[in-house]
Design brief:
CATH topology of the largest domain: TIM Barrel
Largest sheet: 8 strands, parallel
CATH class of the largest domain: Alpha Beta
Helix content: 40-55%
Number of strands: 16
Distance between the termini: 45 Å
Length: 376
């Protein structure tokens, strides 16, 4: 175990042909097998899903966002009502992101200083707020998260080297302050490696964070516009400086292709809005590629989304019906599409874990790449 206080991580197997790892997280709300995909429940809900749905799909951990919950309904209210798990009726583990990426995406509304981030709320008429590293930790501890993330600065792509250097060094200083503010309770605090596309900055940041002995380490600031090949190169380079006995988390990734490529490079944890957001926009994932259900070719198609899929949607509904729901604007379309996409992602991770255990990951990865088309 890498940490006491009800959190730990152990490696169970290592793929012979890559850096793919099979492991297990121990959290106060259950054990989680890795590599794992964490469905995103930004505002204390995975959109269109109930907690029972998530349990049936096999999700052991989900992600929520402290920035959004701080603004509404408020972390203190959630704390007073028994914490985030009780508030949203979710028995499994929860990882919360501090909001660094959200503040990056709302850069027109915020100003970054050494103290923290001053920003205007995007939901209540522009009220002014300040989140410091210490406040970010306090918010997440009030929520009762199992895994909490420090406040960091997410770099835009491209960024000039001098700007990236100053930003990365600030992220390291903020990490020290988050570590000092963390009360060592049942929550596990991860570190976030930033540095943009600059390998020396990634190395510098990783080595600084290692001195602080976090419970796990995340690779942040990717999938912000850089080419895929560059993203995978930065992931591989960063992982080389992270400890083998602690979990590694690629924040905000990814597509099905990203899951395979980053698992092969030694990543254990992922999150991304792609399966849920695409579901609401009518884009469905299959082992042969993405299927856009609004297309007219599916108007009289009696087949399920994917014949090999065992999800509730594919077992009961045709493409024709799902297209009808979507083009009619029916709420059920979002629900049935989300069930399918999350099943696809979670089942894909089950296949990946099984293949690592059986030393067949390379074959599964090669087979997936040969069949998967970007869109159809």
């Amino acid at each position: 175990m890498s940490r006491s206080h009800s959190f730990g991580f152990k490696l169970l197997a290592q793929d012979k042909g890559s850096k793919a790892r099979l492991g297990q997280l121990a959290t106060p709300h259950g054990k989680v097998d890795t590599p794992v995909f964490m469905p995103v429940g930004t505002k204390a809900t995975v959109k269109a899903m109930t907690p029972e749905d998530m349990e049936q799909l096999g999700a052991g951990i989900i992600l929520s966002n402290a920035y959004h919950l701080y603004l509404r309904p408020g972390h203190e209210l959630i704390r007073d009502l028994g914490g985030l798990h009780k508030f949203m009726h979710w028995p499994g583990a929860i990882l919360t992101d501090s909001g660094g990426y959200q503040l990056f995406s709302l850069s027109d509304f915020c100003k970054i200083t050494e103290q923290g981030v001053n920003f205007q709320s995007h939901i209540d008429g522009g009220a002014k707020h300040l989140i410091t590293p210490e406040i970010a930790v306090q918010i997440q501890q009030a929520l009762g998260s199992d895994i909490i993330m420090p406040l960091d600065e997410c770099l835009a792509y491209p960024s000039e080297y001098e700007h990236a250097l100053a930003s990365t060094q600030r992220t390291s200083r903020w990490a020290q302050r988050c570590k000092a503010a963390h009360d060592q309770g049942n929550s596990a605090l991860f570190g976030i490696v930033q540095g943009g596309i600059y390998k020396d900055l990634r190395e510098q940041c990783a080595l600084e964070l290692l001195k602080l002995d976090f419970a796990g380490y995340a690779v942040g600031g990717l999938s912000v516009g850089e080419p895929k090949a560059m993203m995978y190169e930065i992931v591989a380079h960063t992982v080389d400086f992270l400890p083998e006995q602690k979990p590694r988390y690629a924040m905000g990734l990814g597509s099905p292709e990203d899951l395979f490529e980053c698992v092969a490079r030694g990543i254990d944890m992922f999150d991304c809005v792609m399966p849920t957001r695409h579901a609401r926009n009518g884009m469905l994932f299959t082992s042969n590629g993405r299927l856009v259900i609004k297309h007219a070719q599916y108007a009289d198609d009696a087949k399920p989304i994917a014949a090999e899929c065992g999800c509730y949607t594919c077992r009961h509904y045709s493409r024709a019906y799902l297209r009808h729901l979507y083009v009619s604007g029916e709420i059920l379309a979002a629900r049935l599409n989300t069930i399918h996409n999350l099943y696809f992602y979670l089942d894909l991770m089950r296949q990946i874990r099984h293949s690592i255990a059986r030393s067949t990951f390379s074959e599964l990865r090669r087979d997936f790449k040969s069949r998967y088309k970007h869109r159809r």
